[in-house]
Amino acid sequence: MRRRSARVLALASCLASAVAGAQDASPAPTLAPVNVTVTGSRIRGIDVETAQPVFTMNRQAIQATGLTDLGDVVMRLPSAATPEVTPQDTLSSSNDAGGRYANLRNLGAVRTLVLVNGRRWTSSVGGLTDLSSIPVSIVERIEVLRDGASSIYGSDAIGGVVNIITTDRFEGASADVLYGVNGRGDGARKNGNVTWGKSTERSSVILGATYDDADEMLDRERALTRYANGPRHPDDGYGMGAYGGVVDPRAPGTAGAGRYASDGAWVPNRYVVDHPGGRVGDTSDLAGYHLYDPASNADKYDTTHDMTFRAGSKLRNLFGTGRYNLTDDIALRGMATYGVRDTRWRAAGYPLQSGSGRADGLVIDPDNAYNPFPGEATSFFRRLAELPRFSWARSKTFHADVGLEGTFPWGEHTWAWDVTYAYAETRSDLTTSGDIDLDHARKALGPTATVDGRLACADAADRAAGCVPWNILAGPGGTPDAVWRYVATTGQSRQVSRNNDVIANLTGGLADLPAGMLRLAGGVEHRQENGRYLPDAAASQGLTTQLASAPTRGGYIVNEAYLELDIPLLADLPLAHELAVNASSRYSHYSAFGGGTRSKYSIRWKPFDDLLLRGTYAEGFRAPTVADLYGGTAESFESFIDPCDSAYGAAAGDAGVRARCAAAGVPAGYRQVDPSGAPINSSTGGQNPVAFRTGGNPSLKPESSITRTAGLVYSPGFADGLDVTLDYYKVDIRDVITPILASDILNFCYVRNDPTYCGRFTRTADGRITTLDESLANLGSLRTEGYDLGVHYRLPSTRYGEFAVLSDSTYLKDFSQAPSAGAAPRQLAGYMDNLQGLYRVRSNLSLDWSHERFGATWTVRYFSGLKDACWSATEECNRPETINALTGANGVNRKGSVAFHDLQLRWQAPWNGSFRLGVNNVFGRKGPIYYAASSAGQGSAPYNPAFDIDRYIYMGYQQTF
Prior knowledge:
Beta-barrel_TonB_sf; Plug_dom; tonb box; transmembrane beta strand
């Protein structure tokens, strides 16, 4: 198998493709033997063959993508999926917004462990590891273990492990610059890095700095993102209007004030101030108003006009690493990085209405001069379009580790040991503008009086404190700056997480058996994780329009020990060139919830030299994060479809659902409304006008998992340079820690008839949902199953240069979720599931050519089609009779596959410089709109965050000295 390893490494070094793979990290036969450690094992050895599927992407392959963010690079892998937070989350109030995260096997970023040089990297209070905090310039390679590894690394390694290997020796200096821009001239990216290193026989040091600046992209710049529900429905999805509206406050039954509905409920009239040509007259005169028509856009607002499609970011990072050989057998090493990331995004002005005043309400006072109903407390509604909301997130990440490592002889074998202390800290500050101080707004909308010939707030104390009367009904341009200064507020929140980690490992040979060396590795780890989240003080008390949340504070201590054995059984026999097993076990004890042991068993069998067969069985777990356990209650505005909606919900076509809705008190003919007060007009639903609640749960226990893999590696001797890998995987997760989304709660209650969920929400007499609890719980299970196929072929050299072909694909056979124990699972493979695309097939195919100083790479990235929510039963619904696995109702719209093509050209200059010119998405291909993609890009048009939105052109230059 040495021959195979050498070929794969040679292929990886020649391929400047979007993905480059290698089966292991064994040295070529011409090099002196060295000890290596493969991701997924702590055992060091010469020519280690792993029974686990490890995928390697080298420096050249990373550079060939044209991407300067590790998170974006990892997302290109076929086994990677859309993480929980993306740059399209423009309505996110999370301090994790702006980061880049890895999500393997569609199991979520919180179930993907990120290591740097085999050691845990810093993570947020919510358990997310920001890959953008690791500068690309220091990365030697990325190793991706597509297997469970909790017995080796502990918590989180369920979906897999991303191990970032950094450069450890560098001589001289290097500078690299890159500039890229989208075909429409926006989203420009500027990246530069410098690296300096010096090495001697006993020591080495590397210093580096990186700067990366990516401009924001706006929804309004493209037809595909200009409309809330895509270009097919340009007139749909408008939000609350920018001109003032009021609700008739007169008593029920008053002539001209409203009407009685068929169920006897009083429905007051809603009016909007006249605004011909954008001009507003006397707002105190009801004659200057007209009835509000929720079916018309005349009095609504296109919120995407003010939305960021993808947030801009700016990253600065400093890096240093060093190593000093104290003796021939002991070395001192250390590494430190400090990075600052700034992210900025915008959203449309706040849709202010009387319900925004929380429990106290927010109305125009009966004695306010602008009130069109003098003497009545008048409810109102208006979007503050002239005051867009801006968010700035600054994340500061510091990581430092120092350790000793060495070797010593024991008997006839050499043992290796290492001890490391690591400290990591992440500080995230989020600043938001464009919100309203509700107390000041209440006073500005309060009683008025004439003072010194001018209209003023009636209360003298309020006037002294800066109160200015607010004619909120006047619309854009009708609010003086003095009023904005009084009612507008800026909120600030902070998140801090700290990790202290002490690790000790020991590995070596125990004995020489007839089939080879019996190897062992063992170690202990002591880790402290602490975090806190401090929301804006006024917002947390519900004093502003910012989403309210309570503080988070907590932590825990982890003590762990592991043992790993690699046992050779047979060697150099017929049909048993090699047969070996690997067993590992790890005990983990958490101060928050106790301890447990997880084990893993692997087998590798080479019936002959060209073929390796392998398989694993692994127990895994994910511990609750600090936010999971101690997170304070928080508000969120959810988009969902209410099953009880009589036109587009499941009740429209399911008599059983209608009966259950009626039994719950939902009136016949009930219609779900959006924030503008309009009934929803498609089965995609809409955003709730009032906030729902979610929060942590200190009684949570860890998730547990079982991972099974089986595969082969075939390197036929008759085709030198060809390697084929095929792996089967199956992951089962129990006690899944999850917030239960509004759509799931309602569907479980009414469609699936599970009464355990019906107590999580309340409705008013007219059917509107007023409260809903999405708090975390250990609920149900999650399963994913599929295959990975890799075909890598380096063709024989020709007079025209060297050619290499690389293909890596993933087939998703099953992805199923069960909401609770005993519940029927939802089969979601092939669906857009609100957060990510669960593609049946993802594939990358690259063709690389190199000749003397020139080279080129063509890459195709393929995504199979997905099932999406129908727009309605009759429109954009090509499978109307198919039951939608997400909602349980009839109707699925199957959308086609997408392929993106990338090209890179490169030239090695004779003065130690190198140029690269590339185009990602050469043909400017755009993916379809997915109406079930809203959760993957809150606030943006429903465009899949995994897809390219435009052609991207870049040019880079590297100079070494």
